[in-house]
């Protein structure tokens, strides 16, 4: 991504799920809403380092483990 940005190629990043089930055994980031915010901040920080603008980062906030249950309308 960083190389593409350096070349002037626009980058857009989409996160489909919210990350709430990524660290279920970590007590300091409970309830799940806290973990969702931590994951968003981590993603935003990492992408900023790679040169991706905040306006080019999109969070769809679907619950973790639900992608296989999407309806045709949700695709």
What are the defining features of this structure?
75 residues, alpha+beta, two-stranded parallel sheet, 2 helices
Strand content: 5-15%
Structural class from helices and strands?
alpha+beta
**What is the first-to-last residue Cα distance?**
25 Å
Could you give the order of strands across the largest sheet? 1-2
Rg, Å, rounded: 14 Å
Q: Give helix % range.
A: 25-40%
The sequence of SSEs as H and E is HEHE
> Which residues form runs of ≥5 with pLDDT under 50?
none
Number of strands: 2
What would the principal axes of the Cα set say about the shape? flat
Q: Please outline the major beta sheet.
A: 2 strands, parallel
The number of helices is: 2
Give average pLDDT, whole number.
85
Structure description:
Helices cover about 30% and strands about 15% of the residues. With about 80 residues, it is of the alpha+beta class. The chain has a two-stranded parallel sheet with strand order 1-2. About 10% of the residues are buried.
Task: Please provide a brief summary of the model.
The chain has 75 residues and is an alpha+beta fold. 31% of the residues lie in helices and 15% in strands.
Furnish the topology, listing elements before pairings:
Layout: H1 2-6, E1 13-17, H2 32-49, E2 57-62
Parallel strand pairs: 1-2
